[in-house]
Amino acid sequence: MKLTYYGTGAGEGWPGLFCNCELCKTARKLKGKNIRTRSQALINDDLLIDLTPDTYMHCLVYGLDLEKVDHLLVTHSHTDHFNPPDLQLLTEPFAHNRPNVFNIYGNDRVREKIWTGVPRIWEVESKFHFHKAEPFKSIVIKDYIVVPLLALHDRNEECLFYEITQGNKTMLYAHDTGAFPEATMDYLKANKVHLDLVSLDCTTQSSADGKNHMGLVDAVKERQRLTELGIGDDNTKWIVNHFSHNGLWLHDKMVEEAAKYGFLASYDGMEIEI
Ligand SMILES: [Zn+2]
Ligand SMILES: [Zn+2]
Ligand SMILES: [Zn+2]
Which ligand approaches the C-alpha of residue 204 most closely? Predict the structure, then answer.
């Protein structure tokens, strides 16, 4: 199973659209892995996670190909993860030769945002199917088994992250979230999940959070909790992702700090295979 990171920045992107801080100025100058667009990832070539406002840019710059993508997992409704107006482009006259229905899995707030945020929704309705994703209720998508897990993030909606299994491999893609809620830990424990890859939130990088997001120190704690329960181990690939300029570490520094704890730091376009 392959995971490709297309967007590894927090909500404002890095550099922030209107930001003039030194870190954003430096990122604009250095470019490369210091440029972090908003959250999106792809499993193999057919299971998309989040519909960021940068989706089109990911297609143009990183070769994201949506032809085979008929399934979209949405973590939550924040604008960096879900941009409903793009769904209008599923239908004629914007899209030709797209016979398959586009399946969207998300919470109630995501559903509301589709109905309020897609222009001329009545013309698009037949092109997609919304499925409510409920915590701990597994969803079968092709040969994947997907389990939505509860995140600790925006208290106004049921934020989710996803455990994805294909064959004998399982990965956890956990953004945006603070420390995992007990219900999520209980699920992982009870189901004796072994994770081959864990992608953890690291929005605040150099500082601790744990309540809505994580910093590196929080990610290290989560790994310890998972390792103590045997859910992850030395064979697990541990990755940190979703970085904000307010976290203060440009890419090279992030890589260096993450490596001290055995984590890889994501970058836009990074591919990892398990
Ligand atoms: Zn986010
Ligand atoms: Zn900035
Ligand atoms: Zn968020």
Answer: 1
The 3-state secondary structure of 116-159 reads HHCCCHHHHHHHEEEEECCCCCCEEECCEEEEEEECCCCCCCCC
Distance 227 CA to ligand 3 centre (A): 26
**CA 141 – ligand 2 centroid, Å:** 39
Between the CA of 208 and the centroid of ligand 1 the distance, in Å, is: 17
The total number of structural domains in the chain stands at 1
Question: Which pLDDT does position 192 carry in this prediction?
Answer: 83
Centre of ligand 2 from the C-alpha of residue 204, in Å: 13
What's the CA gap between 140 and 45, in Å, rounded?
Answer: 17
Among all bound ligands, the one having the nearest atom to the CA of 212 is 3
Taking the centre of ligand 1 as the mean of its atom positions, its distance from the CA of residue 201, in whole angstroms, is 9
Ligand 2 center–CA 19 separation, angstroms: 5
Predicted local distance difference test score (pLDDT) of residue 133: 98
**55 Cβ contact list (under 8 Å, min separation 6):** 40, 64, 83, 86
Within its chain, how far is the Cα of 10 from the centroid?
10
Provide block-wise average pLDDT over 10 residues at a time, the chain (274 residues).
98 97 98 98 98 98 96 98 98 95 98 97 96 98 98 96 98 97 96 94 95 97 96 97 98 98 98 98
**CATH code (residue 226):** 3.60.15.10
Residue 59, pLDDT score: 98
Domain that holds residue 82: 2-273
Q: Which ligand is nearest to the CA of 50?
A: 1
pLDDT for 193: 85
